[in-house]
Amino acid sequence: MSEFVRNVRLWFAPERVRQEGGTPDYRFSLANERTFLAWLRTALALIGGGFAVDQFLPGLRWAWRVGLALALLGAGVLCALRAVNHYVRCERAMRRGEDLPASRFPAVLSLVVAVVAVAMVVVVVVGWAG
Amino acid sequence: MSTAGRDPGLQPERTRLAWRRTTLSAAVAAVLAVRTALRAGAPATAIVGCALCCALWLSFLWVAHHRIRALSAAVRPPALAPRHATAAALCAVAMAVCAVALLV
To answer: What is the pLDDT of residues B76-97, one digit of tens each?
Structure first.
């Protein structure tokens, strides 16, 4: 957890990232930036999905609709925060010449999206039948 | 820009387009927020929520605009500052918070 807090401080302190190691090839930094943006798009898509569940499944019971929307919005928030954290960690690893950090977040996010998708299919099918 | 000073892999251009795509994704989320507010019959809280989402989109656009200018200004642009990355991500997080307020 203290590692995470230290990372959060780095989010706001670019000069402290720059103090360590050497500047990597700018193309690697740009690739890292594009990866960050791709994760941010994923986060925005999840947030858009949260809005969409509320708007395009109006026949759903309130609890289900809000529950699914909140699950997607929560995943979006986690994804956005993790995108910054991962960007900073990768940037620092590249400066220090270390291996890039491994992460189980992609697997967790895939599972959450799969669970929400299955729940949505079940809810919509049951809603039509009933 | 001269051909000699250009990156052969077009890295800055690709990064610039990635910022554009991400701004577009944020715009989609903001439009959905406006639609939610309109469908709810536009009560005061919904209008405040959707105005906030539009303002957040504008701030994201501002961050993206600055970064795009930095990318096109130099042949070897500096790395994205973590502060700007945080600002962009916080726009997305704040949009999600507005969404929760609009939906619940």
So the answer is: 888 898 889 999 999 999 999 9
Structure tokens at B103: 């939906």
**CB nearest B29 (choices: A27, A51, A70):** A51
A14: Cβ contacts below 8 Å, ≥ 6 apart: B81, B82, B83
User: Which pLDDT does position B5 carry in this prediction?
Assistant: 67
Question: Which residues on B lie below 8 Å from A13 (Cβ)?
Answer: 82-83
Full residue range of the structural domain in which residue A78 is found:
2-129
Domain boundaries, chain B: 11-103
Per-residue pLDDT, B4: 55
Average pLDDT, chain A: 87
The number of distinct structural domains making up chain A is: 1
Radius of gyration of chain A (CA): 19
- Torsion angle (degrees, nearest 10) of CA B26, B27, B29, B32: 180
What's the longest Cα–Cα distance across chain A?
Answer: 63
Q: Would the pLDDT of B1 be above 50?
A: no
**Low-confidence residues of chain A, pLDDT below 50?**
none
Nearest to B32 among A29, A55, A87 (CB): A55
**DSSP states of A8-66:** HHHHT-HHHHHHSS-PPPHHHHHHHHHHHHHHHHHHHHHHHHHHHHHHH-TTS-HHHHH
Residue B56: φ, ψ to 5°: -65, -40
Give the model confidence (pLDDT) of A60-73 as tens digits. Answer: 788 888 998 999 99
Q: Is A29 on the interface with B (CB under 8 A)?
A: yes
Note whether A93 contacts B: Cβ–Cβ < 8 A. Answer: no
